[in-house]
Amino acid sequence: MPVVNINADIGESFGTWEKGDDAGVMPLINSANIACGFHAGDPSVMRTTVELAMHHGVTLGAHPGYPDIQGFGRRPIRMSGREIENMVAYQIGALMGVAAMAGGRITHVKVHGALSNVGAVEADVAAALARGIKGVDRELIHVCLAGSRMADATRQAGLRLAGEGFIDRMYDEDGNLTSRQNRDAVHHDPAVAAAQAVAMAVDGVIVTREGRRIPAEIHSMCLHGDEPTAQAVGGAARQALLDAGVELRGLPEMTF
Amino acid sequence: MPVVNINADIGESFGTWEKGDDAGVMPLINSANIACGFHAGDPSVMRTTVELAMHHGVTLGAHPGYPDIQGFGRRPIRMSGREIENMVAYQIGALMGVAAMAGGRITHVKVHGALSNVGAVEADVAAALARGIKGVDRELIHVCLAGSRMADATRQAGLRLAGEGFIDRMYDEDGNLTSRQNRDAVHHDPAVAAAQAVAMAVDGVIVTREGRRIPAEIHSMCLHGDEPTAQAVGGAARQALLDAGVELRGLPEMTF
Amino acid sequence: MPVVNINADIGESFGTWEKGDDAGVMPLINSANIACGFHAGDPSVMRTTVELAMHHGVTLGAHPGYPDIQGFGRRPIRMSGREIENMVAYQIGALMGVAAMAGGRITHVKVHGALSNVGAVEADVAAALARGIKGVDRELIHVCLAGSRMADATRQAGLRLAGEGFIDRMYDEDGNLTSRQNRDAVHHDPAVAAAQAVAMAVDGVIVTREGRRIPAEIHSMCLHGDEPTAQAVGGAARQALLDAGVELRGLPEMTF
Amino acid sequence: MPVVNINADIGESFGTWEKGDDAGVMPLINSANIACGFHAGDPSVMRTTVELAMHHGVTLGAHPGYPDIQGFGRRPIRMSGREIENMVAYQIGALMGVAAMAGGRITHVKVHGALSNVGAVEADVAAALARGIKGVDRELIHVCLAGSRMADATRQAGLRLAGEGFIDRMYDEDGNLTSRQNRDAVHHDPAVAAAQAVAMAVDGVIVTREGRRIPAEIHSMCLHGDEPTAQAVGGAARQALLDAGVELRGLPEMTF
User: Fold this and answer.
1) How far is Cα C60 from Cα C99, in angstroms, rounded to an integer?
2) How many angstroms separate the CA atoms of B207 and B186, rounded?
3) Are B116 and B159 in contact, with CB atoms under 8 Å apart?
4) What is the full DSSP assignment across D45-74?
5) Nearest residue, CB atoms, C96 vs list D82, D96, D131
6) Of the partner residues B15, B71, B72, the one whose CB lies closest to the CB of residue D69
7) Neighbors of chain A by Cβ distance (3+ pairs < 8 Å)
8) Cα distance between residue D207 and residue D214, in whole Å
């Protein structure tokens, strides 16, 4: 029986500004990537988010990003490896501190936005990210794109790697995500997303725009919680996976 | 044989700006209160500070403050109890994350500046501070002024309390610290500071400006590392304590 | 023929987070109080807001606040008079710089949130606010509560003062605003708000909860743009004022 | 009689952290590039710096940078042209506001650190910088490296350009500054710096490491105020220029 995890970026409000439908998305996922205050989130938002996740039995992960609230962590900042590893350790630790207040424990990490994009292609940044994660807790599971520099660095560091796919994003023929510049980058049709999720979990393939099927080891599937169609898309994918006999688990209950 | 601890606020540089003589002060102390990035310090400064402390066998503590880099945490900010407890847990956790990179462990907390001053007199803030510390790790030792609201809240929370005295600050007749507005608020004479330290450790008293001796349980004595006379004052106090047969210990090696 | 101004706090989005319905409110007001990046707004949000206001013929004002994005400027921070005057001058100047990009000119100032509340009761803060405004441009009109310390300081500084009333807030019997802690602090009924606006503009009175009519010189009436009923309430008040023969003007076209 | 200007980056303290010897450097320069709070400086530091400059008859310029206090504006951040132009206008305006408090006026702009480096080579960023400067005040003089993309954009925008040279930096054979990675990147010998300054002002040439003389139109020469040798180097250069019959002027008193 295939086993897969559904994750989402959660806790992206900041101060009095709200973002995303965390309460609506939480029942659909198994693991939450929680913003740590550098690109979104603040200590109180993080606390609320941890409590909401725990209420739904969703496992907790850190979602560290660049120090750029205004830019939501989407603007690359050139930082040294040492700056990156310390900044990542700081953010993971901070979430651990806040989670401990609620009796929660952080079990995975997924890097956010531009920091993830840079780490996917620059080996130095990827290595710094792996050092930052491992330095805090070598049992942390790193959710990242299989085949990226970040995945290489994760394996070299001896960390557990959860290969990530996307429920609601279009894939190009080369297996990369279709750029968000394109209109069809995000699947808003629940049926399309559901089929994509099942293909990943049951057949172990990514299906491209043209229908090409590329083998890929997907342990965790991302649902974008900030899309207005998130609940419909996530709900359909979740149901389709269950109907196909796929078991949904939190990341710490999986084997890698 | 009396046992006492010497602590200092350390790691108060930020980015490219330096503050204090951490390398000069570290050999004189047993426990370091390390800024956590909210009023001073940043992830890389924190890492360097942790490594320096560990190199000197100095035990590690978090020094959380208000979110106010520009004001160095010296400006009171009215925050709710929930904001405070989460903010404190965030900062302690962040330092734990960075310290873990270096193989270090956080064993105490001392609250910084205006947050400490407000917590000393406002019961709600004091309770929030105690919740934040205990929520992260109930084994953390809280260094604070005996007799303050913060001390009450610390005991009520069941946390271990290290009563704090000051090596290099003048005490008024009522046992409070002389305000820094006054010229003689800080002892720059090593002999005066040394005598004050010995009186605290051996006789268990605070000696006021007029020579009044007020009984006080002092477990840890603070040295202000940012004074130009810090090394002379700290060195003299340390030697005088050793000459008087006082044993100097890290906070986790003490009993409370 | 009575003349009055309608103002609203505008441009309170930040980075990728949106707040308020600026496009919906702009057609209903004459003058906009634009957040300056310290409690809300950022340079690009400010630019967009200035352009939107100018498109609607709405005059431009600065809305300076405490340096506290996370707290939205609602948490008092104890700052010196010098810190406050410079911080206010900085924010007004910053908006002037951004407005100049769009060919716009800043003609009034209204202080935001906790900074306004503290300035209303503390003479030192009020004087610092007046110095900050006057120091940048002595022609700036200061919109503030008549009878407050801020109003006193404004007059003493020789600045023009626009006395402010509220279209959509309940007044207590003593003429103060009903605290937002109370359920009925905000008028959501367009008819009630419209009657209140006409009483202020035509009769020169504030009407309290119990119907007491307190004489008050109201030059500018605030509409809260972040209430879901803002458009209905503002639209009704605007129409009622026009029906009552009141002329609505931008602040620079008024006499004080 | 040749005319030249000496400029320096000034006001780079932040909050309680001090940097540079502003009081020592101010008597040696004609024009100050004042940090605007994004990479260094805060409203109160800016006010103090403006007052110090005015006391010495030094003309005032804005020194805008990336929003990165921790990184001192030395880390490139990928931002859109719109973000850059608004951010630059914001910073220039902010300094104008603070300067107005002291009766001062901003007459030039010099871009700081990584933002300047990126603008020197990327045409889009250069154009955005020119738009930001011109948008605030088309009379502002832009101090920048002749031959750079920024210089091109400045001329295309119709802004006045002050070509910049360096008193205390080594030049490579291609006319570029020797990287700070190299030990000999900065001249610490007053005689060497003085000769370089005279060659620029009198002969209109940059002299490279190997003694090559490259014609260059230098209107303003930068002195690095944060070098420990700044006073000796600046004093020697200033005296040598005066001895060589060069007239030193503030930027607004020059013709471009």
Assistant:
1) 8
2) 14
3) no
4) HHHHHHHHHHHTTPEEEEE---S-TTTTT-
5) D96
6) B15
7) B, C, D
8) 6
Residues of C whose CB is below 8 A from A19: 16-17
- Per DSSP, the three-state class of D145 is coil
| Contact between D191 and D167 (Cβ < 8 Å) | no
Tens digits of residue pLDDT in C10-57: 999 999 999 999 999 999 999 999 999 999 999 999 999 999 999 999
How many distinct structural domains can be found in chain D? 1
Residues of chain D in contact with residue B16, where contact means CB-CB under 8 angstroms, are: 19, 72, 74
β-bridge partners, D10 = D34
Does C83 contact D at CB distance below 8 Å? Answer: yes
**Residue entry with tokens 């990327």:** D122
Its domain, for residue D32, covers 3-253
Query: Is the separation of the CB atoms in B256 and B10 below 8 Å?
Result: no
The model's pLDDT over C214-232, given as tens digits with 9 standing for 90+, comes to 999 999 999 997 788 999 9
Contact by Cβ (8 Å): A77, D114: no
On whether any CB of chain D is under 8 Å from the CB of A232, the answer is no
D75 and A78 in contact by Cβ < 8 A? yes
ipTM for this model: 0.96
User: Strands (DSSP E) along chain C, which ranges?
Assistant: 3-10, 31-35, 59-63, 106-109, 141-144, 160-166, 205-207, 213-215, 220-222, 247-248
Chain A residue numbers with beta carbons less than 8 Å from the beta carbon of D67 are 70
**A11, A2, A6: which is closest to A250 by C-alpha?**
A6
Pairing status of strand C106-109 against strand C141-144: parallel
Concatenating the DSSP letter of every residue in C139-153 gives TPEEEE-TTSHHHHH
Nearest CA in chain C to D92: C97
Give the integer Cα–Cα distance in Å for A88 and A72: 16
**Apex B214 CA angle, B211 and B220, nearest 5:** 110
Strands (DSSP E) along B77-159, which ranges? 106-109, 141-144
User: Do C80 and C129 touch, CB atoms closer than 8 A?
Assistant: no
Scanning chain D, the segments in alpha helix (DSSP H) are: 22-25, 43-55, 81-101, 113-121, 123-136, 149-156, 190-198, 230-243
What's the CA angle centered on B48, arms B47 and B52, to 5 degrees? 120
B246 close to B4: Cβ distance less than 8 angstroms: yes
DSSP C196-256: HHHIIIII-EEE-TT--EEE---SEEE--TTSTTHHHHHHHHHHHHHHTTPEE--GGGS--
Q: Does A40 touch chain B (CB under 8 A)?
A: no
End-to-end CA distance of chain B: 15
Least confident among A217-231, C118-132, D28-42? A217-231
pLDDT digits (tens, 9 = 90+) for B176-221: 899 888 999 999 999 999 999 999 999 999 999 999 999 999 999 9
Q: Check which CATH number belongs to the domain holding A29 and give it.
A: 3.20.20.370
Over residues D180-239, the pLDDT tens digits come to 889 999 999 999 999 999 999 999 999 999 999 999 999 999 999 778 899 999 999 999
Element (H, E) at C193: helix C190-198
Q: Which residues pair with B60 in a beta bridge?
A: B32, B106
| Residue stretches of chain D with pLDDT short of 70 | none
Tell me the three state secondary structure of residue A11: coil
Q: How far apart are CA D107 and CA D60, in angstroms?
A: 6
Mutation for testing the A interface, residue in B50, B90, B95, B106 having most A CBs under 10 Å: B90
CB C120 within 8 A of CB C126: yes
Q: Is B14 on the interface with A (CB under 8 A)?
A: no
